[in-house]
Amino acid sequence: MKSDKELLCRNTRIYAVCGKGGVGKTAFTALLTRALAERKSTGRLLVIDADPALGLANALGIKISKTIGQVREAVIQTAKDGIETEIQEMAGMLDYLLLETLVEGNGFALLAMGRSESMGCYCSVNNLLRDAINELSDKFDTILIDGEAGLEQINRQVVETLDYLIILSDSSARGLQTVGLIKKMTEEDKVISCKSIGLVFNRVNSINEMLRRTANEIGINILGVIPNSEQLADFDMRSIALTGLPKHNEAYEAIDTILEQLINRANF
């Protein structure tokens, strides 16, 4: 299996999105998926839903039939049964089992991590799955990961290194506090390695002095703002796939502009 370093040497571009719950991360990631899928430079796009809530699939209009969590449960159960031939057979089938969890969308493939019910330390199983996911990821040019506020599950289940971590926040004190904690996790606690980190304000029409000052105190670059969108809120409320928003929607246009800045800055 390929290591993270070997995967990254192939110039696979890896983005991840995280932030406090309730700031609109799922909607943002869904629209970022669309913006990436519409760019030829993106190449083959893999979207990984690392949030156990699995809200991204619904926002993308995708139905999930199997998750990585379910594959993990099957591997753990086989290991518990202790039948050596079945354990070896299961390990040999991992690539096939992962392919079964892939769902094709419009210009992208979606892989849902889901939730594993088994408690306790299963480091060998986690490592086996992460290696298999890296092997699968090697077939794609761009990877977009939708994560929780914490970064541990991305490190533990997916990859150890990101090209760009996008932290989403609203203008609330708690949202900004989470931004500071996430940045600390990357720089001081070394939970995950990030080449670049940026902040996006969601449901904010403009950046006031207080927001700018707080971002400076945290030491994070502001990538842009996404204005309130009644149309997006209506789609979300009625569980309509957000990828169906018109291209001239103000929220989508803002996200597309932010992506353009990221691509130009990183020379992707």
Automatic annotation (TrEMBL):
List the InterPro entries: CobQ/CobB/MinD/ParA_Nub-bd_dom, CooC, P-loop_NTPase, ParA/MinD_ATPase
GO CC annotations, alphabetized: cytoplasmic side of plasma membrane; cytosol
Q: Name one GO biological process term.
A: negative regulation of cell division
Alphabetized GO MF terms? ATP binding; ATP hydrolysis activity
Q: Check the record and name the Gene3D superfamilies matching this protein.
A: P-loop containing nucleotide triphosphate hydrolases (3.40.50.300)
Q: Where is the CobQ/CobB/MinD/ParA nucleotide binding domain?
A: 16-238
Q: What is this protein called?
A: Carbon monoxide dehydrogenase maturation protein
Q: Which organism is it from?
A: Geovibrio thiophilus
